[in-house]
Every structure is written in structure tokens, then in C-alpha cells.
Amino acid sequence: MRAAAAPPRLSDHLRPTGAHLRILALAWGAWCTGFYSLMILSFLLKPIQADLGLTERELAWLTGVGVGMTGVGGFLFGWMSDRLGRRVSLAVSIAAFSVGNILCALAPNALGLILGRALVGLGVGGTWGGGQAMLGETFPPALRGRYGAVAQSGAPVGLGVAAALGSFLAPEIGWRAIFLLSVAPALILLAWRYLPESDVWLEHRRRLAAGTDDPEIARARRPVLLQLVSGDLAGLFTRAFLLTFFNMSAYWFAVVWLPRYLQEERGLSIVGTGVWTLVFVAGSITGYLSFGRVSDAIGRRPAFALYCGITAAGLAMVTVFWNTFAADPRTGLLCMFVAGVGTGTWSCYGPYFSELFPTRVRGTAMSVIMNVTRGAQFVAPLVLAAVARQWGLASGIALAAAFAALAGAWVWTLPETVGARIEV
């Protein structure tokens, strides 16, 4: 009697199924609300400073702690993703940053805010790796880029929601009420029961439990960080880490201090800052969604280098060349839109790193690289504050353009992977 054939993997389908769409929806929602939770503080700094009497240095530390803790969350939830499953790590990370938002709303002083922001950063650090690893393992190779980009577009949408609530609603209801509203991401957990687990991960764990002689399974029994920094993965991990660090520096040097740059150096009101930021967000959404199709068509590396060039040009236009390009509001808004389009590079990472790293370390590698490099941006507000005192905020943010150009050159040290089939 012939044994029944194994069902096809999700990634073997030519078109997305209902299971794919549920994975995409929850991954998008987790990343949107997580990024919102990380960024909302940037739009509430003035009222928080006025209410709690914080100094500029204390504001910089408050801004940096959430970003810094994403690095810790990246390791913790990356490990959880590889050992306990993509679904579990997503659920726990969403719960963590939702509780962190509640603590911020109830914080009696700066220390209470720091503790709440630390928990927010910890949880946000876990959403990306698990969600993008699941997408990479389940979506058809020919469509991986565009759907990875759709999931990644949750980030600029989250930034847009943060800009809208922080700029337009916070003056009416107060910063504590905004943080209370920010517990809403926990509602995503109601849909968690309908999220399927990655079949590639399940097969990997089945083989690991069966004790097969597969070399990949033998390597998987080693401590996961040791696998990343030694042996066959060390060079790949290092190059991917540096690529992300350069691009992360470009992004955070620009975005973390952008509202204050527009207000303090360019004289925009809180509402005006919100409008300019939303134009940047519109450009980002355009860039995120377009990047997926471009990278599926011409390759991960050429697309990444192209969008890095757009980032560098856009940031230079709104800082170093402000008087030439951005003094007129209409031209300035166009420059902000261009700068936003360049951030589409972030749509590269989920599909690209899913294709670069094996299943045994995929979740950890993606989470650690993304979140440790972001956690390193803990110093970005401090650096910008120091640079601003010497040369002005524009010169600090203009450093981002140089980092973007460096990332666009560095991507060529990594292999091309477009269309690769992900193996167990």
C-alpha cells in the first residue's frame, strides 16, 4: 500500500492562500503597532518635558533607552523564535510592548517612563525577526520580495499613526492619554489563534527531535550565538550585521531627531512638523511597497543600492542644501517625500535575510542583526545632541546621508539570493 504523499509546503504554492494572508496580516499588524510604540515618544517629548521638568540630556536618555532595549529583545525573542516557534515569539513580544505602553501612561516620574520604555523596546525587538522569518519560510520564492515589503510597510504606517496622534491629538487629550490608547496593539492577540506555524520550522524541529544524521541538524544542536559567530556562518553574519548597522545609522540619525530638527532649527510648529513628517511617511510607504517588486525584478543588491542613493539625496536636500531645495514649502515637502522613498531599503531585509540564513538560526540571526544594530542607536540621540550644540541639528542629521551611501556600497559584499528556495 503506497504511503500518502506529504502535503505541499506553503512556499510551494504559486499564489498566496488564506493561510498566507493570515500570516501577512498578523506580521504587518505586529510590525505596525510595534514601530508605532517605539516612535510615539518622539512626538511627545515637549509635553513630557514640560510636565516632568526633564533636561535635554534626560530627554536624550529617555529617547535612547527604548531603542537600546530592542537589541536585548532581538536576542531573547530571536532565540524564542528558533526554539519555541514563530507564533509564540510574536505573541509574547506584542504583549510586552503593550504592557510597556501602560507603564508609560502611569509613570509618576522619569524613572517610571524609562522602565516603561525599556519594556516597549524589549517587545518591539521581538516582532520583526519572528514575523519576517515566518513570511520568508512560507511565501512563494517569486513573490517573497513583494509580500515581505507589504509586511515591512507596517513600519511607516506606524510612524504615520504616531505622527498623527502625537501632533494633532496629544495637545487635546495629553501625553498620558496617548500612551493609554497605545495599549490597543494587544487586540492583535485575539487573532493569534488563527495564525499557522511555519511548516519549514516544524519540519526542522521534527528532524532535530528524530536525531537524523543531517549536518544541518548536527549544527543546530550547538548554541545558536556560537553558530553565528564561528564556523560556516561567521563571515556571512558579520557582513550582514555591518550592512544593517550602516543603514540603521542612516535611518535613526534622521528619524529620531527629525521632529525636533524641524521645530527648533526650521521653526515649524507642532502641527507643521506633523504635516512634514506625514509627507515623509507617504514617501516611505511608496518606497517600502515599490521596493519589493523592484527587488524581485532586478535583484536584492541592485535594488538596495538604488534606494540607498535616493535616501542620501533626499536627506541632503532637507539638511545641507535646505536653502537651495527646501526653503520653499512645496519643494521642501517634495524633498521630504523623496527622503521617505529611500527608506524602502527596509523592505529588503526580511526576504534577503530569510534567503541568506538557514532555518536553524534564521529567527535569531534576523532578530539579533536587526535589533542589536538598532539597539546600538541608543547613542544616536546623544551624538545628535552633542553635534547639534556644535554645528546645529542639520549637520547631525546630514550624517545619515553618508551612512546611507556607505550601506549602498557595502551590500555588494553579500551574495545575490533573489528567487532562492528556502530549505529546512
Salient structural properties:
76% helix; Growth Hormone, Chain: A; mainly alpha; 424 residues
Give a quick rundown of the structure.
The protein is mainly α.
| Number of distinct helices | 21
Strand content: under 5%
Mean pLDDT across all residues, rounded? 83
Structural class, please? mainly alpha
Question: Would you kindly provide a written description of the structure presented here, covering whatever features stand out?
Answer:
It is a single chain. By secondary structure, this protein is mainly α. The protein has one domain (17-189, 213-413): MFS general substrate transporter like domains (Growth Hormone, Chain: A, Up-down Bundle). Helix content is 76%, strand content 0%. The chain contains 21 helices and no strands. The longest helix has 29 residues, at 56-84.
